[in-house]
Amino acid sequence: MECKTTAVVSGDVNDSIDMPDLPRRQFDALIIGAGGGGLRAALQLANADASVAVVSKVFPTRSHTVAAQGGMNAALANVLPDNWHWHMFDTVKGSDYLGDQDAIEYMCRAAPTAVYELEHFGVPFSRLDNGSIYQRPFGGQSQNFGGDQAARTCAAADRTGHAILHSLYQQNIRAKTHFFDEYFAVDLLKDDQGYILGALAFNIHNGEPVIIEAKTTLLATGGAGQLFRTTTNALINTGDGMGMALRAGVPLQDMEFFQFHPTGIAGRGMLITEGARGEGGYLVNADGERLMERYAPKAKDLASRDVVSRAIATEVREGRGCGPNKDHVMLKLDHLGEDVIQKRLPGIRQTCITFVGIDPAVAPVPIFPTAHYTMGGIPTNRDGQVVMPVKDTPEEPVPGLYAAGECACVSVHGANRLGGNSLLDILVFGRAAANHIIDYLSENRYHRPIDSDSLESAVNRMQRWDRKGDGEGESVSGLRDELKMVMENHCSVFRNDEVLAEGVAKVEQIVERFKHARIDDHSAVFNTARVEALELENLLGVALATIHSARARQESRGAHSRTDYTERDDINWMRHSLYSLDTGLDYKPVRTKPISVDSFPPKARVY
Amino acid sequence: MKFRIYRYNPDADKKPYMQDFELADPEPGMMLLAALLKIKDTIDESLSFRRSCGEGVCGSDGMNINGINGLACVTPLASLKQPIEIRPLPGLPVVRDLIVDMDQFWQNYRDVKPYLIVNDPMPEVELPQTPQQREQLDGLYECILCACCSTQCPSFWWNPDKYLGPAALLQASRFIEDSRDQATEERLAALEGPFKLFRCHSIMNCVQVCPKGLNPTRAINNIKKMMVKRSL
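Output (structure tokens, whole complex):
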């Protein structure tokens, strides 16, 4: 294919760029992202004899699923009585009634099967004496619709994500899935009827682009924790799929809901699993008081994450923080004894020793709420199809496009995700998306031609960074650090209009300055500077969506706490936000009707 | 704080060279990865290395630090003698700077069939495993595939395409030891011959450098014992 393009990105570029014949590869399904969601989908598709390509900017086992610690929820009832309907209630309540109840029912019902499948794939779950899978208590879990604490989280010590990611990768080796390791996906490709037909990617090793044509494309690129300066997230979590979706005209949903995990190591950000409290750990303030007794008299340290994070932030704001700067509280674990800690929490023990020189078996660990999880994302239905408003239909599927996992918003987490539901989400909806793709493929047997405009803009986006420096323009890393600081200062645990309005202005200003940003490294070989520039462009789209949606939502719900609108407002705000680059904010109703059971109506949320 | 870092960009350099960098006032408790990121962000953005989780669980940032392989993200600057000399993992082709071509390493991993093989029909629930059987996997399943061990192993340096290396063999052991796996015989048979397994001479570099504190040599010796038993 011969194709001339004109550079359209930010002004002063070469007049036209020769685009030689780009190599093309064709697959039934393209999966972008090789974390748990992408690999679970890939395995399902490979086992169904679909040709499937997985594109990942890092080697698959580097994906951030590997860092999940505590476990995965499923009502197996191995330790305490349980059933999926209780799990559903807890998830709806945890979501602060913003989760879609059909998707939540689907997930909770599918959970036990999802765990057994993983076990059959080889995941080395911890075990009980009778040989069944070990389960621990986690936050926000109850028996009998708000009764006693449940124990629903299936765990492989505190390395559950590692165990799951490696087992899924291993099964994909067996299934001979085609991997494009260390390829960066630049943008989605489509035709003039809006079908998504694959993506333009390039091989990071040599900079060479490739068109990956696919009848179906699944975005499974994970979250965007790199929006914030202090985060539990890996450096690769830059919201790439969300950025791609935005540029393809798809809105992002509920982005104002960003989870701050109560127990990141203070000032450093490393995650200490909720499982630490599930095993019996608790928080204390500067007075040595067990602070959660005041905020959640019943569930105490196992209240929902938003509740615990607000409690810690409040303690610090009111002067009861620990340390010389009174800027954190302590997580006490030493009373559990060295045996329990070594057996159930060996990974976080090592992390604490490495990063702060504290052995939790001996002394308490300084912690503070830390950016952790993107509840919002690319809107999908429970089949993983990406949906967006078209005329009067709030949820019209985008043909050929799917999303699953943290980059998606089904929405099962609503305004606040429960611990242990994230691994569950990626596995259930990775599989559901793959099953729908298999159906779609049977009705869409042939590749459709890709629109040249869509290819040109993707190529331009990539080639922009080949421009040789004129010595002007700001550095990508400087702008990135500034963005992370702005988001941390203006879009954190507590928010108000004044702070958010300033944040909006600052983010928009950074977006403007980014148009003239530069990189100095123009090598074709493993150019990480170029990758980081493309990542920052994705993050900027996500930042706009997050801070605009946050400013607009005038209520407090789940992780979104407004000091100027302190109450939940179900009349005006029990609805999903949608933010798109072209048209700004829009809203759609919450799906309150489950599949087969009665709806859980909104109630005051007490733990 | 002084650094000497291996540089090589095949696009621009005829041959590799060592470049000196200096960082003023490193923060207390700073890890090597944070220092490298700071050098990249503030001094030379072309400095290339892999990184992801920053807390020692993803295995991206294995490199040779003052002669010993390790993960930059869990190596405190304070533990290192200056100038801190950083090179790519030895024994694999260099792509650029601290980035090595890991194809051979992944090939060896795939060669041991690193997945659970169960021939019987699967039950509707989990395959049972006692806590004692599960404990057999401790020290094996935690591997993060960072390649620090294999690329510190002289036997691997000499025969990377014939000797599987400690990382792949640790994975072989992880499935041989799993009470649920039903392919022990075929796994052992596949390790026959003078190279794949038996090139391990118990030099134990792998044990010394493993950032997760694992012991591939012990795992390899356990496989060797099973091979001996099997041949009797």
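The domain at 262-371 of chain A is CATH 3.90.700.10 (Flavocytochrome C3; Chain A, domain 1).
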